[in-house]
Batch of 2 targets.
Target 1
Amino acid sequence: MTCQRIDTQGNQLTFASIPPNVGLKAALAMSRADIIDTVRDSKLKGRGGAGFPTGLKWNFAAAEKGEPKYIICNADEGEPGTFKDRVILTDYPDLVLEGMTIGARAIGAAYGLIYLRGEYAYLRSHLNHVIQARRDAGLLGQNIGGVDGFNFDVIVAMGAGAYICGEETALIESLEGFRGEPRNRPPFPVVNGLMGRPSVVNNVETLAWATCIFAKGADWFAAIGTDASTGQKLFSVSGDCAKPGVYEFPWGITVAELLAQVDGADAKAVQIGGASGRCVPRSEFSRQLAFEDIPTGGSIMVIGPQRDMLAVARNFLEFFVHESCGQCTPCRLGNAKLLEGVDLLAQGACSDEYLEDLKSLGQTMQVASKCGLGQTSPVAFLSILEYFGDEALGRTPTVQTSEASR
Amino acid sequence: MTQRIPLERHRAPVSQLGQTVPRAENPEAIGAMVSVVIDGIETKVPFGSTILQAAESVGVRIPTLCNHPDLDMAGVCRICVVEVEGQRTLQAACAYPITTGITVNTHTRAVRVARRHVLDLLLSEHYGDCYTCVRNGNCELQALAEEYGVDEFRFGHPTAPVTETDESSYSVMRDMNKCIRCRRCVRTCIDLQEVGVYEAIDRSNGTRISTFLDKPLLDVVCINCGQCINRCPTGALYAKDETDAVWKAIDDPAKHVVIQTAPAPRSAMGEAFGLEPGTPVTFEMNTALRRIGFNHVFDTNFTADLTIIEEGTELILRLYKALVEKDASVALPQFTSCSPGWVKYLEHFYPEYIPNLSSAKSPQQMFGALIKTYYAEKLGLDPANIVSVALMPCSAKKFECNRPEMHDSGFKDVDYGLTTRELAKMFKEAGVDVPSLPKSDFDDPFGTATGSGVIFGATGGVMESALRTVIELVTGLKVEDLYEHADIIPVRGFEGVRYAEITVPQVGPVPEILAALVPNWEWLKGATLKVAVAHGTANAKKVMDNIKVGGKFSECHFIEFMACPGGCLGGGGQPIPTTAEIRAARARAIYAEDKAYSVRKSYENPAVVRTYEEFLTDGPCGHKSHKLLHTDYTARGKHIS
């Protein structure tokens, strides 16, 4: 067990109340089709941020005939401001492994891999311990849970610290030993994933919730949250609030309600969904955190009234200029141009015409980049210009050269 | 179309071979046709076709940069983005497999804006002036900038180079300031050639193409094949230019400047003058070469024929030692040594097989050695004043003529290796329009060649030439009696690796030229000669790995290897672009030229016969020929200092 703990501010997480292996036992008593139907009925959506329906993903993979199949736990929690997976892996790793085992049963996977973020290397031995204990208990390995012919085992594979490796196809490339660079999609990993085989990539939290769904029932889960966003969600709250930490709220909570809980009510904006998310101004705090309104993988960064929004935009762009994999042109060069643009704005040296060029470039990046990184990296920049134009623009020029307008 | 490529093979980081082919498990999908609407045009395409292929089939042009027909898809440059109705984002046409009916729009506003942005961004880090660029007029980036009406550098343009050009290599120059990170070179080197010199390193806007530890190209395992040059869309990669040095020699009245021309450039030179690929200009080019000032124009086919005699004799000697004298130390199969890219590949990757490599020099180097000895003597010239130039389809020939051991004439045997592209440039500079010139023949004393030499330019050609000669020398029959028109079809074609068995039906008397070497042919009676042909080092690797584990190819007697896909006609010095269709057209030109020769077997070449009578008097593989026409090799390994 590790000593690096995240504050959950005294919140009791649902995960703490789930007895071990009840979910797995329930699932193993079902047919494979029923397992998938249960997940589908719960309307569980991926907790990594994209919100793809988990039941559908499992169903696609189950329908594929390629062998062997893989179930991959995406533990490359790299989105700035996200640290809830770390809590789960630290305190509830069995729920994740149980979820992987259930998923493996559902799709017919023989192998599981946990792709662990490079910075979480300290969790590796902890996870290996848990995996070994499960093997010893007959919960991994041959004929799991007494089910004849259900063989499944899990290993931990280490990431090396690249943000892009949280993107599922880049993660798979990395697992195969290549540069972590996204693949063209389609085909999707459920068809053509690790080693060209059908692979399901699920977030840590998704797998843990899957276990809960089998322990407490799909109806229990589906009754929480909103129609399109069922269940509870873990949020990683940081920034200008008194009580940062990991929180569990049902989907559908408004930004204002959340801020009240974390003592961040005087925020002027909240960055929702990490660096790749959007910057939500005070005027929109009544909006809901939900896939149908403001989707998020759980990162909530509270931005206090004292913050310079241009500096916020700069911070995120700097991150993307560092983390773009450098494969596709819009992302490789676009982020750097946007960052230069923010610097010009800060110096009061960006012409209106060039600002329009930059906004247009940001829009192109959103539609023309190869993967989610480049498609979302301009969002913070564009939303800050949209909502905080007064603050971001019209700075006093500090650089006099004519070059500066470019 | 149905089999996914196993992932055990080498793969460039971005290349996604096999990732879009239809699922083999889905039988109804195989061969099925899918409806697609492109810009309002309805059509049906095979399941799994890319949008790019579908668009081409209905005449809709979609621009590309990172895509190359010889390479695996990458989908990285994003210039080919199109709108697929129902999709939130634009899709790369080169990498999007059509598996269900879709509607595609290729020039919506969002598409046009995105393409222009991609160009603007690429130009924002593309340093260099088109005027001074080797690819001026033949650059895909330049062409797209024109096509998309780029009228300003919206996101800036570099005013100074960021890196120094790597000019360490004798063959391949790398100016990374012009690189657009399409990674065609990476995919060429890793996927197509399986050499693996280049790799993308670092990330984001710092991403660049690097060699191992950023070493200069001279110090890594580069085999100088130049395939990366042929597939670079810009002027970032180019062959070393030696035209200035050649002009200087031509302009020097004290120098006697001669040129030998290889068959492959003659099948491709026309492309540089706007002719269709596969239009030979051999004899027009002879006139052109004299017009620009070369004193004599020779045909490399002469030494190609000589190579056949020397290499064929070497093979016969090896077989005799192995089969009759039971000498277990004889290295078999014998490998050809005419392709300098292949030779360096073997030296790096399979140095333990150097004994298998024929010690015969390549035709270029044999010619070089003869020009500064036999030819100089014959014409009473001081070899010090002879400048010997070779027109080759090849960038590796530049390295080859600079190998330190290639001084057997007492001088640098070949002074300069020019590529087809360089000579085209010289012709243009001199205002010589090659296709419109009258035809003229090669100069004596090496003028007459055979068709056997010509087909050296295509994969399988060396093998076919060798077989024509060996069959006749051994059987006493005419090869035409065994193969129609003497076309030995089994070794022709573009299949990566080809294997053939030829049984010796009868034996004849030992011809005079070989009388000193073997007493009779009885030991070959009824024997089955096993031969193979491989082109492209990726295919060479397959054969070598098979030999290493004692597979089928280890039982071969003779194997032809060419470093470049298609053989010399696909060489790294040939006109750009290159595609399978262009290479096939060049091959047709070469085989047509072969057919036109009356003498089609090397040993019947009168100039070759005369050379053995007058100069190489102790015969094939004799003392003099060993000194001038044979060489040795360097076990380089993969160790990099």
Note: Chain A touches chain B through 47 residues (CB under 8 Å).
Target 2
Amino acid sequence: MIRWLLGRTLQAAATFALAVLLLFVLMRLAPGDPLSRLVGDRDVSAAEIEQLRRRFGIDQPLPDQLRAFLSGAARGDLGVSIEHYPDRVTSLLAARLPATALLGGVVLLLNFTAGIWLGVRQASRRGSRFDRWTGRLALAAYAMPGFWLGLVLVAFLSLRWRLFPAAQMTDPLLPLDADALTRALDLLRHLALPALTLSLTSIALTMRHQRAAMLSVFRLDFVTAARARGLTEHQVLWRHAWRNTLVPMLTLLGLWLPVLVTGSVFVESVFNWPGLGSLAAQAIASRDYPVLLGTAMLVSGAVVLAGLLADLGYVLVDPRVRPS
Amino acid sequence: MIGSLHDLLRRAWKNPSGRWGALALVLLAIVALAAPPLLPDPAAMPDTVLGATPPSTMHPMGTDQLNRDMLARVVVGARISLSVAVLAVLLSLTLGALVGLVAGYAGGWVDAILMRGVDAALAIPRLFVLLLLLVVWERIPLGALILVIGTTGWFATSRLVRGEVLRLRHEPFVTASEALGAPAWRTIARHLLPNAAGPLLVAATLGVGDVILLEAGLSFLGLGVQPPIPSWGGMVLDARPLIVTAPWTAIFPGAAIVMTVLSVNLLGDALQAALDPRSA
Amino acid sequence: MSDLLEVQDLRIRFPTPGGGVSTPVDGVSLRLARGETLALVGESGSGKSLTALALLRLVPPPGVIDPASRIVLEGVNLLELHGEALRAVRGGRIGLVFQDAMTSLNPVISIGEQVRETVAAHRTLRGKEARERAIALLDEVGMPAASTRYRAYPHELSGGLRQRALIAIALAGEPDVLIADEPTTALDVTVQAQILELLDQLRISRGMAVLLISHDLGLVAGRADRVAVMYAGQIVEEASTSRLFRSPSHPYTRALFGSIPRLDGAVDRLVPIAGAVPLPDAWPAACRFHPRCPEVLARCSVETPPVVPLAPGEMSRCWLLVKGAR
């Protein structure tokens, strides 16, 4: 078991290393010079540009840049932000990570509870109006761009009807001595719309995955056998059928991270939610390459990690998969 | 192969969702192709004084902040979004099929290297790959945008094709026909297409929807289709400051995206169900 | 011995892809009394497994049981039950031991848990008591080290032990009727004998009625009191085991005997039955066996043979038994 775990972790590390390499290549592939942007946007003299060039190592030959980059990355140093100079990229990422983690966590919770329940219901009522229309509605929601849905929700629910705050994570005017409950409620109010936007646009994924998994389990003999024992439909559906869909659902969990991360770039920027997504969006606007690269690396690492955890999960969930 | 594809399409048509999706797409394509000459020129006479006006009989979708007819802009945007998506997906499909074929047939270390690369590439969310490529590209031309999007979307297809090739390689009839003189690669190629056509078609259809959303997002961030070429994402970006005073400037382009992507996905779903009825 | 279970004219229909209807079970009538073993014998495709499922109202959709059919358990027509009442019958009055234990057991739940949940579903036992009852049941079916094996998963057990677990589950609701559908097909010969012996013992110790379904006439020889032979969705002969083996009255039964080896040397050549088992959507006209019958008459392909009662509880569907039919 330990050997398998070790092997799998090494594999994941190798994939991540290769991904980092790819990212570096991507960065150098793109035409244009990240620093030339600064000339257009800021009042910077030629001498200062040269200095910055040397500082960011852009004047070095490519293999040297790669080496510097990789050794820095291995030490946990992802460079310095161009826009927020001299803040380190890692500290910027660390500062923004909690907000995204909170939003992501809430969305995951919402999507998995609602998505699983709806998917199971669809499968048990396959072909019914509920099944067909829920599927269509979910698909329609999936077709909505997150930035558009977010904007529409903000326009109507926040700005026009003042039901929810329009931006950010907390109320800047909240008194400093406000108690925990008030803070929590405030946070929830701010969380509601971004979480709703991200959830709605991606719930179709969970629902469809769950529905398909249930349908394939229904065909198996032990489901009929469970009914033959006189167990309730609820027991047959959840304890017997659903428990056998945990493996495909774990696979889905591993696929969720890219979806969340991609969506949060748009939703966080529309709602001004101070997370990694809006950091990336700002880095785009200011052409802050190191920050963008750092975010990409962090996200790729998280995706690889999620895959590894999913594999670990299979072993825990399915007694047949225990490596001897 | 034509027979089985024809069969697939026929069964997808029987599905009401598939029918609606297909019809909506055909309608959209017709409007996108034929309508622009019939509508007011979306680039004509920007009028900042009059600005955005709400929907009226003269302007069914209202006008944007430069008093340009929204309907005309949305329709031209359809042309752009659809062509970008279709072309990018075709590129992805071709690249993916090529890599999958090579990896599956060559096997050994070629396959190992290619698939390791694919794994690593799949670890990076597609949006971030595009962001890194596009951020330093000042005002990317449309053709280059299609190329960039297309070259970032072939990874999953390559896995699919590789899987088919591997499966066929071990089929007894391939070895048998090889013994009779037909080289293995020829037999595989002849049987690959009919077997893979269905799943590839489904992947392509769903891929078009994904690319439309991706391109809209990139345009919203200012990285995709560059003005003055109208794009739905770009229109929503422009509409952002007006979201309360003139919501129609954002609502209509977004609704167009929703309609299109929904139709594409309904069609893709119907094709998927026709391919594997047990999962419907 | 009074009748515990009576099946009257069971008919099950399935829609066919072409728009038609197939009737894989077409007018099956059975009687089962407490304490006896009735064997239902037939080749695959004869409809015997479907009959078993029908008794528990588990016919897979889109199959439908004809409303004119009746399945009466101690005076109650099971086809009129719904909800709670139906669930009480499933496992509580009638237990079903499925054919393949590997696929009939939930792979992610331990076998002990699967017994326990059945116990809890039918008795008013909870928690620890239900668990102890489950261990006792595993013991009763001959599972060695029952309390340790409780936690085992299906894939960790041998075929024979899996089958025993399946039997324990079927008994957990203390049913009066036990249906065993090909209980030994997936097992080795030596294990087969053990399982059949177990079923017999349980029948006696619990006073149950057993419906033993099999395609193997030899299996049935020393185990059943009566035998019903099924062909093409119908019972073509029903008799006491001794009478059936001594002098089978239906050509199909005779042909079955002719095609199996016997230790007493009574058969020196195995004669396979010509032709193939017909499919439910294309039953032959009139007598369904007529295309393959070595003793076929002219009228067999034209007129459906009647059910000819022989001795009490014995019948045969054949023109040969009707006086003056030739």
Note: The two ends of chain A are 6 Å apart (CA to CA).
